Amino acid sequence: MAVYFVYRSHYDLPSGKHLRRFDDATVLDWFSDRWDYLVHGDGKPDESARARLRDLLGCHVYGLGSLFEAAAEEDVPAPESDEQLDACLHTHLYSEGPILYEPHCLTVQTDDDELEMAYYFFDDDYLRRHRARAAYLLHEDWRLPSGHAGGHFRPRRQPIDLSPAGTGEGATYLVFNAYYDSSNLSDLEGGHRIEGVRLPDLARYLAQNSPEDRHCPFELRLLRSQLLLPLPDLAPTEAGLLDALLDNPADEVTWAAYSDWLLDHEGKLLGQVLLERALAESRHCPVARLCNSLDLSFFGFEDVASARRHLKELIANPKCDRSHHDPVKSLIHVEEHLAQLCLHADRGGQHDLYHQWTFFDDLWASAHPDLADALLDYAATWDVLSTGGSREG
């Protein structure tokens, strides 16, 4: 039997979440068995409850220490039932958002006046009934698993479809976990989807199609502006092919020639190479300061070359301070049907701040359906676990 704790936060966590497992039977047992230690210190009374909690969980969790500090001040005994734990949480736990408790599952949403965060406790009893809901929370590494299957994926939660649709088979799903103001969990938009395009063809699709929807995510417009870059040290043939595509991205003959050349000379797939390069270049953009300082509502709807020039102008604006942005701390992973970017966005005080971009197509999702659904849930609501309470987002 086990209890799982997950902290969802943009602070210091490239993946945006922190997972810790404990050998307890239930969520109630986790709190009751550790109550004396967290409240009284078990021989370490000079150490604060927040410090003990940080050592136990492996990270600082905003607001959770208030429960044990209040229990010490008011001599609150350890809860012995789910009803007592529920009452104790709602009476003594500091939170700026909802506290949702049901037996075997606790979800809390709060904020530090700058950003919102959430944390979750759940146990194996919960997982026996609702494991699919926790599939993403239980994934430890920032890098998602590889593999693909037949493409028979129908998402549980409807994503936002972007236009224009592609003309091929399948679909690509886009999940952006970012912050641009203090309502980063309250105003979640959800995942996006491009029908008729699979991930190997996403770079070509973006190069050939300007967004038609004014609500197209900024992140996708940023990625598009970084396509077909004439990087240094490229072979003359490849540089010429890139220039030709930048001038005329609709030229299918050049696309085919470039694909063949890259496969023959480097043994690599063109769509994967172009997407990885664009993600690598996107990490140099100071996204947090850019979006907080300037109006980006008209950026990225031009052709790729114009969008790139537009971005350079925006970044050169004196209002866009990039001094706290460190692209070296970003993490990138790209394969045929999955791509990820943990983007170092800014630094606040002593904390690094990250965004997470995840792209996958229906072939990857059909091999990992629970994980794909959980990713789309994660992009749409902070409350990914509750079964009887509110599912706000």
Q: Helical content, roughly?
A: 25-40%
Order of helices and strands: EEHHHHEEEHEEEHHHHHHHEEEHH
**Helix count, DSSP H or I runs of 4 or more residues:** 14
> Into which percentage range does the β-strand content fall?
15-25%
Spans where pLDDT lies below 50 across 5 or more residues: 389-393
Distance between the termini: 31 Å
Report mean pLDDT, rounded to a whole number.
93
Computed over alpha carbons, the radius of gyration is: 23 Å
Number of strands: 11
Shape: elongated
**Structural class per helix/strand content?**
alpha+beta
Q: Order of strands side by side in the largest beta sheet? A: 6-8-7-11-10-9
Query: What's the story with the biggest beta sheet?
Result: 6 strands, mixed
List the helices and strands and how they pair.
Blueprint: E1 3-8, E2 17-22, H1 27-40, H2 49-57, H3 65-74, H4 82-92, E3 99-102, E4 105-111, E5 116-123, H5 124-130, E6 160-161, E7 171-177, E8 192-195, H6 202-208, H7 218-225, H8 236-247, H9 252-266, H10 270-282, H11 287-293, H12 304-316, E9 331-334, E10 338-348, E11 351-361, H13 362-367, H14 369-378
Parallel strand pairs: 6-8
Antiparallel strand pairs: 1-2, 1-5, 3-4, 4-5, 7-8, 7-11, 9-10, 10-11
Helix pairs in contact: 1-2, 1-3, 2-3, 7-10, 7-12, 8-9
Could you please describe the fold and organization of this structure?
By secondary structure, the chain is α+β, with helices and mostly antiparallel strands. The longest helix is centred in the middle third of the chain and has 15 residues, at 252-266. Helix 1 crosses helix 2, helix 1 crosses helix 3 and helix 8 packs antiparallel against helix 9. The strands form two sheets. Strands 6-8-7-11-10-9 form a six-stranded mixed β-sheet, with helices on both faces. Strands 2-1-5-4-3 form a five-stranded antiparallel β-sheet. Helices cover 36% and strands 18% of the residues. A hairpin with a 2-residue loop joins strand 3 (99-102) and strand 4.
